[in-house]
Predict the 3D structure of the following.
Amino acid sequence: IEVLDYLNKMAKKRFSARRSNLNFINARLQEGITAQQLKQVIELKVFQWANDYQMKNHLNPETLFRPSKIEKYLQEVEDIEKNPQKFKQHVERNHQEEQQQRDRNFDPLA
């Protein structure tokens, strides 16, 4: 329930502690992935997806902790830990691109 509570807090969601939500979390914990690692995946994906209209719907236990995706997400976390400066540059570049796109789409008469 600790990981689910953390997801709810970080993603501003209200997933209940029912079996369907906990199964994905418990399965990953039984595989040896720690609660801390799952929380790091939550932090990363909230950072990446929370402001994206389509992707924010994927901030749920099934998507975040499904067996076919968890290794990829854990690798992303590890890559960031190994080279935080590179990640910072990536974030800054994306932020600039998003701002430029908003500026291009700005219509003062709309």
In short: The radius of gyration is 16 Å. The chain has a mean pLDDT of 89. The helical segments are 2-11, 19-30, 35-49, 61-65, 67-82, 84-105. The first helix runs from residue 2 to 11.
